[in-house]
Structure formats: structure tokens, C-alpha cells
Amino acid sequence: MADSGASALPSSPSQNRARLISTCLAGGLIIGFMALIRLYLPAGGNDPLGLVARLRRRRKSSNRPVRVYMDGCFDMMHYGHCNALRQARALGDQLVVGIVSDDEIIANKGPPVTPLNERMIMVSGVKWVDEVILDAPYAITEDFMRKLFDEYKIDYIIHGDDPCVLPDGTDAYALAKKAGRYKQIKRTEGVSSTDVVGRMLLCVRERSKSDTHKNQNHSSLQRQFSHGHSQKFEDGGSGSGTRVSHFLPTSRRIVQFSNGKGPGPDARIIYIAGAFDLFHAGHVEILKLARELGDFLLVGIHTDQTVSASRGTHRPIMNLHERSLSVLACRYVDEVIIGAPWEVSKDMITTFNISLVVHGTISESSDFQKDEGNPYTVPISMGIFKVLESPLDIITTTIIRRIVANHDAYLKRNEKKAESERRYHSENQLAKIIEVRLHYVKATG
Questions:
Q1: Is the pLDDT at 22 greater than 90, yes or no?
Q2: I need a surface site. Which of 69, 144, 395, 414 has the fewest CB within 10 A?
Q3: Same structural domain, 176 and 212
Q4: Is the pLDDT of residue 285 over 80?
Q5: pLDDT of residue 70
Q6: Among residues 145, 162, 185, which one ends one of the domains?
Q7: How does pLDDT run across 350-404, given as a tens digit for each residue?
Q8: How far apart are the C-alpha atoms of 326 and 82, rounded to whole Å?
Q9: What is the average pLDDT across 125-135?
Q10: 130 and 48 within one domain
Q11: The dihedral of CA 151, 155, 157, 160: what is its sign?
């Protein structure tokens, strides 16, 4: 047979060994490289040999956890704050949260609605928070940033994509960005602290009509905080204040906030129900007490209609889905009933295998003490009802009264914030124009 190519010379044993070693090394490098790439594949990616899982376990056992930091005032804390903390926690293994002091908030924004001790309870009660730093500065200084990196072992500083500007119009996170240790998350649309304040003022507007001067102040502040979204109320219409909400609930958001775990077969299930409007420190503390009584805490969230029937047409301030997310974000809560009935029935107790029904001593109403029309008649008759001493004397009306009592101060605070943000956007826009022009000059010679 004719030879179609150059014939190969026989290889020596040493040459064969060298060739085999080279092949193995090259193959190992390729496999290792592919495994490293797959570390960044989305969950459920192709990993037939289990290399990705093994490398992840090895990395987790040999390296320290990634620690991320997020700070904020967390005043009038709502599900938007909680969602920001959830997103921040997803960027690392441990989330450290800095809470700005009262003095710093007053100096940079105006008086806070909730004092530091209540804001600490709220933030610590969020299921995605691992550690809290009190009295954090409003702006991250070079000294504080170094302290975060060296003492608290922070890898990245996190903030939302909405601007955080100082009174002088500068970016509060400029140093973190310059250091290359800054990461950004998406802001939760449909809610803000200023909008929530506006809703509160809507629910007390009727009371202020007798005082013309006060009514004018309330209307002005109402427009400022709700950004003009509630023309119906501006025109003197009636209805529930929760209609200014722009929150669009989705099943995905609820799943993100949910624990995703049910009670065990022999779990002691504790049930507590309420409006949980303007979720506050008093709510967190009573839920903590309730959870300590069993293995699983089930929380019933009453419908908007139920709350309005008992507390007035302008309540609740937050709608059913907003209130449900705030409760779900609490670390002491295992599950919620979205739209729970007012009365706790025998069928409900059986369906959810409830062991104990509880209620706090501090609440908006005392229906649990009535002889007639008591929503807890059935669990009381069954001997499974318990009244818990509320740790804090705070109700939703407490928060509303704080706002109304200081409406002038909050008006000035919001105006100051708006001016700072306008200045920030204006300077950024100018910088972009200059950058584009410089690029054009360079490109055209």
C-alpha cells in the first residue's frame, strides 16, 4: 500500500511518558478552567461531573464569608427597605447594616419619625440582616470606610440605584465608588418613606378641616409627600388613603420574602392576627414573644375592608399586600395568611393545626376583651387563647400622631431632600455633557 504521508518514527519509552504527562496536565487545566467558568453559571446549569458543586464546597470551607455593608436611616421602615436588605444580602454571605444616628439624620435631613432604638429593633428584626452597627455616619468618610474594611472585614458597600446626596449636593458614596468596593442594587418601585407620610396625612385630613390654617399646611404637605398622585383627595373626594399606593404585587415577590418552609408534623403552631399597618417596632416585639411560645408562627393579616370597618375609612395606610410583605420580612414569622378572617373559627384552627392563639395587650382596639362580638370566642372556649404583655407601648396611631405633630418640620425636610437631589442630577448632567464633548473633540482630532 502506498504511503500517503510521512511515516512516524517509533517513540522511545521516555518520550511516551513525557507525552502522557503533558496530555494529562493539559487536560487537567482545561477541566479546571471549565469548572471555574461554571461557578458563574446560573443555578441549575449543566454540571454532569459535579465539579461546580465540589469547587463551591471547597471554596466555602477554605475562604472566609463575603461580608457586605448597607447603611441607611431606615425611618418609617417599609417593605421597600426590606427588599433592599434582601438584595444586599444576596450579594454576599453576611449582611452588616449601619443605622444612621438621630443627630446625623437631623443634621442632614430633618427630624426622624422613629427614634434610633425603634429603628434598631426594626432592622434587627429583618430576616436577611446578620449584624447591626448603631450610630453609623450619614456620609461614608474615609476613616469610617477604613474601619469597615479593617475592623468589620467588609468586602463591598451596597446602596440602591437612587441617588443619596449630602446637603452640599455631593454623592454620599463617592469614596466607596472610588475605592472600587461599591455595588448597586435596584430600588423597589411603588413605595418610599415620603409617600407613606403622605398617606398618613390623608387619613387625618378630615380632623383638620375645622382649623383653616392647619388644613392648608396639611394639604401642602400632603401634595409634597404624595407627589400629586392623589388628585382625588386634593379635590375633596373620599376613599381609602391606601389608594395612593403604586405597589404592584406579584407571586415572585411574595416567594422572595417567604421562608418556603412549612411546620413539622409535631410542630406547636402559634397564631396571631392583626392589621400590622405601618409595621413598627411594637409589632416586631410582640411577634418575637409569640414565636418564643412555639415552633412555628402563623400570622393572619386582615383585609383592607376589615381594617376600614373597625378603624375608619382612611385606614389602613398600607394595603393588604404591602402589609403582608412587611410581616413576611420579619425573622420571627414563618408564614402569613393574606386576608385572614376577623373571627378565628373552629374550622380555621383545625385546618392550620393551631396550638395556641395569642394577642398583645397594646392594640388599636380591645375587641379581644369583649363579651359579645369577640373574634376570639372559639379559641377562648377551647382554652387555647393567651394574652401577651406587649413590650412596647406603640400602635399605628402613635406613628401617625408623630407625623401630624411635626408636619412643618417634615415639609422642610422633604423640600431640603428635593433640592439636594435636583442639584445632584444637575451637576451629573453637566458632567456628562462635558464628557461627551471631550470625547467628540478627541475623536475628531
A1: no
A2: 144
A3: no
A4: yes
A5: 97
A6: 185
A7: 999 999 999 999 998 877 778 788 999 999 999 999 999 999 999 999 998 888 7
A8: 7
A9: 97
A10: no
A11: negative
Any idea what DSSP says for residue 104?
H
Torsion of CA 160, 122, 335, 393, to 10 degrees: -150
Last residue of a domain, one of 135, 167, 185: 185
- How many angstroms separate the Cα of 435 from the Cα of each of 109, 223, 322, 426? 31, 37, 42, 14
Residue 234 to residues 35, 40, 41, 356: CA-CA distances in angstroms?
A: 61, 51, 51, 46
Which CATH number covers residue 161?
3.40.50.620
- Return the axis-axis angle of helices 212-226 and 407-444, rounded to nearest 10°: 30
Find how far residue 59's CA is from the centre of its chain. Answer: 29
Which grid coordinates are listed for 164? 443619596
- Regarding whether 130 and 38 lie in a shared domain, the answer is no
CA–CA distance, 177 with 181 (Å, rounded to integer)? 6
256 and 386 fall within a common domain: yes
d(CA 85, CA 116): 18
Q: Are 230 and 171 in the same domain?
A: no
Residues in the chain: 445
Q: Give me the mean pLDDT over the 251-279 stretch.
A: 93
User: What distance, in Å, lies between the first and last C-alpha atoms of the chain?
Assistant: 68
- Residue 201, in any domain of the structure: yes
**CA 278 – CA 315 distance, rounded (Å):** 11
Q: Which amino acid is at 237?
A: G
- Domain membership of residue 101 as a residue range: 67-185
Q: Is 151 helix (H, G, I), strand (E, B) or coil?
A: coil
Burial (CB count <10 Å: 0-12, 13-18, 19+), residue 191: buried
* pLDDT number for residue 409: 67
- 94 lies in the same domain as 147: yes
Instruction: For residue 388, tell me if it sits in a domain.
Output: yes
Q: Which three cell numbers stand for residue 322?
A: 404591602
Q: How many domains does the chain have?
A: 4
- Residue 304 sits in the same domain as residue 336: yes
Residue 61 pLDDT exceeds 60: no
**Averaged pLDDT for residues 47-69:** 61
